Predict the structure of Nitroreductase.
Amino acid sequence: MLPVIIDTELCKRDELCVHECPLMVLTVEKKGQVPVVHPKKTNYCINCGHCMAICPTGAITLSAFEGQAAEPFSKEDLPDSAAVETLIKTRRSVRKFKKKNISADEVGELIHTAAYAPSGHSAQPVSWTVLDTPEKVLELGKVVVEWMEEMVKQKNPLAEKLFLAGLVNTWKKGKDVICRDAPAVAVAWAPKLGITPQADTVIATNTLEIAAHAKGYGTCWAGYVVLAAAYSQKVLDYLGVPEGHMAHGALFLGHPAVRYRNIPPRHKSVAEEQDGKFIFRARPNTH
Ligand SMILES: Cc1cc2nc3c(=O)[nH]c(=O)nc-3n(C[C@H](O)[C@H](O)[C@H](O)COP(=O)(O)O)c2cc1C
Ligand code: SF4
């Protein structure tokens, strides 16, 4: 099946799609004709949807997304830049949650939004595992702490570097330092082999985090879960991550039990000109 279907009645022959396609999949055989998939490039299409996005008459559909028409939008549908900046700056890592669950369907809506994150070659390789109750989240914490104990026992240098012994002790005293008693967790994973699976997974996780903040949920990266997943098959098994795949992003989330009133400062780097280039250097994060 051809990757792109063009409705010949709706097509205005403006060739916008031909010029937009990053892989030059589309071509016109003769000026004024409806574009077609280049016969030698039928396998080149990466399903990025740019041809659909640019078409003013909605003449294009992708066979990989059968039945999904393009969704038109106008400039007025976009939030203004100040609103977006405020959304980004007011996101905080939330570590205190109300005793109210988030359903898998609610997290699923955020996952659908995160599917619009960019991915290398538009591979869209990210899958998610969602834990939707505090009990399931606590069980994940247990498996992570088991891995930490093992690292401490083995005197693995990472254990000392990351104060794992202290974390294990705190957990044993009943404090959930892994997922902070959150009612839900979303873990993003992808095939180990691919174009840019690790970057894609991290970007998707961050996109979900911003979408969650916009809806009033609180999230925080579950860094210890990501770390443990890289070492512990038990953690991957608990999360249902199949062989040949790796988890690179994890968030614990819920309804925030804290209210932030101020945006804390961040370093504003000043551009330094260097051989005609501008370096916005990160400052050492010291006192
Ligand atoms: C890690 C990463 C690397 C990418 N590298 C390139 C690149 O080298 N050249 C390019 O044209 N697009 C690149 N892209 C953009 C993707 O092709 C693009 O995100 C994808 O086709 C989906 O299109 P969209 O971002 O417009 O939704 C990259 C995206 C990611 C996340
Ligand atoms: S989906 Fe992307 S790669 Fe495929 S034809 Fe359209 S613009 Fe080109």
Observations:
- The first helix runs from residue 16 to 20.
- DSSP finds ten helices and ten strands in the chain.
